[in-house]
Design goal:
The protein is mainly beta. It has helices at 3-20, 39-51, 391-394, 426-432; strands at residues 57-58, 70-73, 82-88, 95-103, 106-115, 119-126, 135-141, 148-156, 159-168, 170-174, 183-190, 195-204, 207-215, 220-232, 235-244, 248-257, 260-263, 276-278, 295-300, 312-319, 325-334, 339-342, 351-359, 362-369, 378-386, 401-406, 409-415, 433-435. InterPro entries: Integrin_alpha_N (IPR028994).
């Protein structure tokens, strides 16, 4: 079935719902008639059928925000969308994008973009140069290689022209230099040397080319996550977290310092970012939602009993362009469960955490006031993760109160008897409890 026909189904459903709502008075028989597609729809479908060779197969991008096999974008800035059809054919350049433009009330194929590769990786439409309309940022996968192929195309007068072409491991579309045009930040990782580079491509003097570079931390294994956001209130940046060693994550922060593109966190002595977190899956994020991205640092907590697992607090710091951090917030961050608890600063030097399995459907995290190795910790509050059909009932029994529900898990809390618990209320604990946001690109917390 054509993607256009699949798109038409929800539109038809919407029209049918409007008719059934009573907004229009029509004979009963007409309420059950299928909505007729517009002439433009059929014209475009016919143009696509005529243009694509017999061996062509629809092949939408595998990642990114635009994954449909047929997409619409105003490439030339004339106020009307062009249609782009992503297909895979045979031959030396099997990946093809067929571009259709509206001419005299009908669609005509005007250009074909051809390229090597096994699949389209991603596509975005953004203003790059000084002309009206959107440019095409296109990534292609090259067999099973880590490096992929990225091109930028402009489209005008029925012709697509390539503005740049390079290899990449990952990329981001950004505007770090604040010139109101979108630029491309390329991350390229060399598998043999284990050295990675960030390359900044921007449009200037009629051409788009690499203008500045900065190093990633050396000896990284793979880029795990890329976050864009502000380093400070008025300076945008890109936060690149990679696996490092056997059990660590390292985050490089890229931004412009004055007119120079640089890695703000790279140590000149070690060649590795100072933002290193071991044995813990936690990524840069705007933890306090103030518009600035914070970076995590771990602080070990004393164990409630000898031999128990070590638990950690995560202290979150914002950066200045000189790499100096400012502490913003402290949390207990439980990535596997997808939740975290904001920890008052008065607790941080007298807190211990323990985990117990109450039964097969109840996992409990107890936050207690630490008074010494030979002293019994005093419970401040406990967080419960409850499953089972009666989870909501159990979440509001035996002194517990409901914090929220996610999927088949209900979260609840109960106050303890410590002096620190006397300052808490159900409302304040509700405000302390948060869900970890899911990264839309990876699907991970």
């Amino acid at each position: 079935m054509s993607p256009w026909k699949r798109w038409a189904a929800p539109v038809g459903g919407l029209l049918l719902s409007v008719l059934l709502s009573g907004c229009f008075v029509q004979p009963t028989d007409s309420l059950y008639a299928l909505p007729r597609q517009s002439d433009a729809y059929y014209d475009l479908q016919n143009a696509i059928d005529a243009a694509l060779p017999a061996d062509a197969a629809y092949s939408g991008p595998l990642s990114g925000p635009n994954q449909q096999a047929v997409q619409l974008a105003d490439l030339d800035g004339d106020g009307e969308d062009e249609a782009l059809v992503f297909a895979k054919t045979s031959g030396e350049k099997p990946l093809k994008i067929y571009i259709f433009d509206a001419e005299d009330d009908s669609f005509v194929q005007t250009a074909v973009i051809e390229g090597d590769g096994t699949a389209f990786d991603a596509v975005e439409y953004v203003p790059v140069d000084d002309t009206p309309g959107m440019e095409i940022i296109l990534g292609r996968q090259l067999s099973d290689q880590i490096l992929q192929s990225l091109s930028v195309y402009s489209y005008s007068d029925g012709t697509a022209a390539e503005l740049m072409h390079t290899a990449y491991t990952e990329y981001k579309v950004v505007d770090l230099n604040l010139d109101d045009r979108r630029d491309v930040l390329i991350f390229r990782q060399e598998t043999e040397t284990r050295q990675g580079m960030a390359e900044y491509y921007t449009w200037e003097d009629g051409v788009m080319e690499r203008r500045q570079t900065a190093a990633l931390s050396k000896d990284i294994h793979a880029i795990e996550r890329i976050v864009t956001g502000n380093v400070t209130a008025d300076i945008p940046g890109v936060f690149v977290t990679s696996t490092y060693g056997e059990d660590a994550l390292v985050t490089d922060v890229f931004a412009f310092r004055g007119q120079t593109f640089s890695n703000l966190t790279l140590s000149a002595e070690s060649g590795v970012s100072t933002q290193l977190v071991r044995s813990y899956q936690v990524f840069a994020t705007d933890i306090d939602e103030d518009g600035v991205v914070e970076l995590p640092t771990l602080v070990a907590l004393p164990s409630a009993t000898a031999g128990e697992d070590t638990y950690w607090l995560v202290e979150w710091y914002s950066l200045q362009t000189d790499g100096v951090g400012t502490k913003k917030e402290t949390t207990f961050y439980y990535t596997p469960g997808g939740w975290y608890l904001t920890v008052p600063e008065s607790w941080t030097d007298q807190l211990t955490v323990s985990r117990t399995t109450e039964d097969s459907q109840c996992l409990r995290y107890t936050f207690s006031q630490w008074t010494g190795r030979d002293q019994t910790p005093q419970e401040i509050l406990s967080i419960f993760a409850l499953t089972g059909e009666d989870r909501l009932t159990r979440a509001q029994s035996e002194g517990k109160f409901l914090l929220g529900e996610k999927g088949d898990v209900a979260y609840a809390a109960r106050l303890g008897e410590s002096a620190l618990s006397k300052t808490l209320t159900e409302a304040s604990v509700q405000a302390m409890f948060h869900r970890i946001k899911t990264d839309w690109n990876s699907g991970e917390t």
